[in-house]
Amino acid sequence: MSYSPPPFLQSDHVSSRTRSILLRRMEQEQGRRENLSPEAFQLLETVCDDILPQQFLLGDLRLNLAVMIDQSLAGSGDGWRFAELPADLQAWEDGLTSLNQYAQALFSQNYTALHADQRGVVLDQAFDGTLPEHDQAVFSPEQMALWSGDLRHNIVSFFLAHPVVQDRLGISANMTGGDHIIQGFKADSLTDKEGFEPDHKRHFMAQS
């Protein structure tokens, strides 16, 4: 679904550098798979929806978080990884492959063919390291616990980093200045808004 950049991006409280970064995130989210295999990417799309349903905030709009994660795997990432896991791209490929393998072991079906509650069981056991031992799985249960931590972190991080989500939530941390001056904030209350901040209440009222 196409959408327009949120109005706060045009504010003089947003620097041109910050604006270009946020617009680039929107472009990336509208892009295509570039790094993961088609099978792993399709599975990741389902997992993203399972872990973070977007309807509560975005209504009919659905951001393709899987694309954002996939495109982030092209470079060096944040520069660190668990010693027990391979480099990022391989780790995501192996983690998603393993998720299917454990789904087969638990329910005799691929992950995407399971009911929502069954997928929840697979994810919960992956998160807390209680998946059953499976000699043919690429990742051990211990490795799955480590990788699934990155999985949850990336899904939530990329969601919150998107300017449409920031607009809906009223996140104004990017509105700290402009190109020539740091204008900052004067209000020190959790509830009081500056005049230049977006009014997130209108979105929730429109959906209620």
UniProtKB/TrEMBL annotation:
<dbReference type="InterPro" id="IPR027056">
    <property type="entry name" value="Gluconate_2DH_su3"/>
</dbReference>
<dbReference type="Pfam" id="PF13618">
    <property type="entry name" value="Gluconate_2-dh3"/>
</dbReference>
<protein>
    <submittedName>
        <fullName>Gluconate 2-dehydrogenase subunit 3 family protein</fullName>
    </submittedName>
</protein>
